[in-house]
Specification:
binds S-adenosyl-L-homocysteine; Arc Repressor Mutant, subunit A; 8-stranded mixed sheet; Rossmann fold; 3-stranded antiparallel sheet; alpha/beta; small RNA 2'-O-methyltransferase activity
């Protein structure tokens, strides 16, 4: 390489966004493309990739593994649900678990994953660990997709401060040919295909050095059924679980019930409010009042488009306002939450005041009348 050329670049190479963010974004894009439900990040360190992935709505199970418990514990609180997650539970379920252990050991908690990520992990492995790693990840865990990233040593000549390796804990750094030959052999052994790519583009004129971070994306070539995973002989757990968070989800009946009750009361209040305003409008004119018929038109703007039958109309009787459950059920949000009318009735039974026949939400407006 031309020495002047090299020196020119060693002064200016700075990745924007930073390289670690580009690696994490690469994984996120992959998740958005293949929509795995269960993702494990091996060598998860400070959990920053896991944190980013918890916002991917396709993921229902996230697991992290690291040999260093302290580095995981530093920021693991960021993986806990926030108050807003309880106030507005999501429709998907999500469980996040962190394990303390080594990728050189098999543990049954690592079975059944769709995607396994190993971002800047393998270069930290001792020779003996690196030898066991393919059997653990590709043979035992056997997910549909594995992503492995590692430094490309050919790029190091452009990084001014790198003497031998980019990090003091690196046990090796591979050239493109070394990584590709290891990856191809691993893929061949375990019946995977592999595609090579990377992040951190080399400067113009230096394309030959390749990406700063080289990445192999492995795809399992054979289909794996759940049964074949479960038929693995029972084995002992060797990892220690250091963190587990189960996010509130509408799939859990208790959160669904709360959400439905809130939505039913909110919807009924809107209908009642519209009905009462309309009524007031008519009350000044005795002739119009006698003709007053509550109409769904008055709140149809809340519905988008809903076809309402006469029997669904709310009505006032004495000091009570009745909002038929069929009307409430026709509101898209209530409808989507409950799925069926029977489910709506079941979820609100005993939790919302209903008419004696149970067909309508009932409000007493006695005090409201007094205030007016
Ligand atoms: N994946 C992270 C950081 C990688 S640094 C990121 O994308 O930023 C490598 C991590 O691998 C370290 O946290 C280290 O503790 C962990 N590690 C090293 N050897 C390991 C092993 N045998 N099993 C599991 N994790 C290991």
């Amino acid at each position: 390489m031309d020495k002047n050329f090299k020196e020119e670049f060693t002064q200016i190479i700075k990745f924007e966004p930073p390289l670690y963010k580009q690696r994490h974004q690469f994984v996120k894009d992959l998740v958005e493309k293949y929509k795995p439900k269960k993702v494990a990040d091996l060598g998860c360190a400070d959990c920053s990739l896991l944190w980013m992935l918890k916002f991917c709505s396709c993921i229902e199970v996230l697991a992290g593994l690291d040999i260093c418990a302290n580095v995981m514990k530093e920021k693991m609180h960021t993986l806990s649900p926030l108050p807003v997650d309880y106030l507005q539970p999501s429709e998907r379920s999500l469980t996040v678990t962190l394990h303390h252990g080594s990728v050189a050991h098999k543990d049954p908690c690592m079975l059944g994953f769709d995607l396994v990520t190993c971002i800047e992990l393998i270069e930290h492995l001792e020779e003996s660990e690196l030898k066991k790693f393919p059997e653990v990840v590709f043979g035992f865990m056997a997910p549909s997709i594995v992503v492995i990233s590692t430094p490309n040593s050919e790029f190091n000549c452009l990084l001014p401060r790198v003497m031998l390796y980019r990090h003091p804990d690196h046990k090796f750094e591979w050239s493109q040919a070394e990584f590709q030959s290891w990856a191809l052999e691993t893929a061949r052994c375990y019946d995977y295909s592999v595609e090579f790519t990377g992040v951190g583009h080399p400067p113009t004129g230096m394309e030959k050095v390749g990406f700063c971070t080289q990445i192999g994306v492995f795809f399992r070539k054979y289909p794996q059924t759940r049964e074949s995973v479960q038929s693995e002989k029972p084995m002992e757990a060797v990892y220690k679980t250091v963190f587990k968070a189960v996010y509130p989800s509408l799939k859990d009946e208790k959160y669904l019930q709360n959400a439905v009750i809130n939505e039913v009361i909110f919807t009924a209040q809107i209908i009642k409010h519209r009905l009462m305003s309309k009524r007031e409008e008519y009350s000044d004119d005795p002739e119009r009042k006698s003709k007053f018929q509550p109409s769904m038109d008055c709140f149809s703007d809340y519905l988008g488009k809903v076809v309402v039958e006469k029997s669904m109309e709310p009505f006032v009787s004495g000091n009570e306002v009745y909002i038929p459950l069929t009307t409430i059920f026709s509101f898209p949000k209530v409808n989507r939450l409950c799925g069926s009318f029977e489910k709506l009735c079941k979820l609100i039974a005993g939790k919302v005041t209903l008419s004696s026949d149970g067909s309508a939400v009932m409000f007493n407006i006695e005090h409201e009348n007094e205030e007016n």
